[in-house]
Amino acid sequence: MNKIKFETDYQEGASPEVLRLLTVTNLEQTSGYGDDVHCQRAKSLIRKEADKPDSAVYFMAGGTQTNTTVIKHLLTPCEGVISVSTGHINVHESGAIESTGHKVITLEGVDGLMTAESIREYMTAFNADPTNEHMVQPGMVYVSYSSELGTLYTKKGLAEIKSVCEDFGLKLFVDGARLGAAVTAEGSDIDIKTLAELCDVFYIGGTKNGALFGEAVVFPKPETVNLRQFTTIIKQQGGLLAKGRLLGLQFEALFEDGLYYRNAKHANTQAMKIKQAFNEKGIPFLIDSPTNQQFPILTSEQNDELSKNFSYESWQPLEDGRVAVRFCTSWATADESVDKLVQSIKQL
Question: For an engineered disulfide with 147, which of 112, 158, 284, 341 has Cβ 3.0 to 4.6 Å away?
Fold first, then answer.
């Protein structure tokens, strides 16, 4: 039998609403490269969501492409980007940032999260080093919301990071590949408006929340960054789609009536059912995540049993022979799939 998949949140195609809009507009003739009414409508909806009517919005196809393009554009050739050691740009993007000539400067995080204190300590030591002109110059702080471990920043914590960035002249970039899961999670006090207030740039992930593909890059205060050649850099990185309307249409569908949030909420709700089942069985977690990524720690016997009927990611082997695994839910995770997993967990 085919295994039920909980490996990622982009295994399914796209929300029916997205496909419907793509279908009914299929024979429309529009200008290329995002210069069309659908991209303009999507940008307007995102600006409204951010409460920043003058923000600059760009559409790109995927997360790695987006991270690479934004970082390459905003840094000078001798600058690097600060990330937690578990950050996506450090561990899971095949050296994409380094391929542009920029170093990823890693700091240890707390539960996958950057702390303002660690940035301040690093920058203070860097500035005190009399030889720092021979070193990679820190130019940006990169954080993911939610983090690679499904954890969340607080508004206070992100504001503290922004304050440190201002003190040291660093730009703040938030990777929002799983932004939907973050802003709809229980206990979250950060929304898109908050990011627009605190960040120099962030992006809204569509690929992992019901779009076929696509990320929306938002510069909430475009007057504070140089965007004169950003479109050119997007094209240089292979990110400027000739049929750009395909991106705009998807974000139009996601933000027209709250589909973006409904999709993410569904993914989180399904994940909480799985989390509850592991908790009731007394199975511990690597991290306490309130989002659609869950990291239970299994014995080899439990792992062997669950893997017979379910596929999920092996995350981290532990010294005692157990393994931390990741179950990831999506906008399309069916009740039936979760119910079968819950029953299997109960039988461990």
Answer: 112
